[in-house]
Write a structure and sequence with these properties.
The structure is a single chain. By secondary structure, the protein is mostly helical. It is about 75% helix and about 0% strand. Helix 1 packs antiparallel against helix 7, helix 3 packs antiparallel against helix 4 and helix 6 packs antiparallel against helix 7. It starts with a helix and ends with a helix.
Length: about 160
């Protein structure tokens, strides 16, 4: 079962990227280093992978500030970077996805709880704001959002399952 988690992580990262294409580079650009970080992790290089995801998180944060958009992508990539950093520490320099032991289980569960709470809070506050409720008439936009949301969920849950 554990051997399926890494391909699930890569599939989730690919879905996140697919949810941003086609579009301007400022929207899909941060997804490229995040996917690259996942690929590095798959190759057993978790530390450079965590650095790449950290760069993607920083890019998302700057874009969220400039565009005054939601923080869901920042939250997703921040938790992704944290989980990859935990994998680096749990692996002890070995292949990250082969890490065993439960030393990182507590921080992993805490990261998941904070991630779910932040995503739920973001959803609640978006419904309370005066902004329009979204693109009800655009099926392509709904499909892209579904790709992004499902990809993020698959990726984060798979990464957490590797550590627990």
């Amino acid at each position: 079962m554990r051997e399926l988690l890494l391909p699930a992580c890569l599939a989730g990262a690919t879905l996140c990227l697919a949810g941003h294409l086609p579009g301007p580079v400022r929207r899909w650009g941060p997804q490229v280093p995040a996917l690259g970080g996942m690929a590095l992790m798959a190759g057993g290089r978790a530390l450079p992978g965590a650095c790449a995801v950290g760069i993607a998180c920083l890019w998302h944060a700057v874009r969220a500030c400039v565009d005054r958009r939601g923080w869901t992508e920042v939250t997703d990539t921040a938790v992704m970077a944290l989980l990859m950093a935990l994998m680096t520490g749990a692996a002890g320099g070995a292949h990250a996805h082969m890490a065993t032991g439960h030393a990182a289980a507590g921080p992993t569960v805490l990261a998941l709880v904070v991630w779910v709470t932040a995503r739920a809070g973001g959803f609640m506050f978006s419904r309370l704001s005066d902004a329009p409720l979204g693109t009800a008439g655009a099926p392509a936009a709904r499909r892209a959002r579904a790709f992004r949301e499902s990809g993020a969920t698959v990726m984060i849950i798979s990464m957490a399952a590797m550590l627990v």
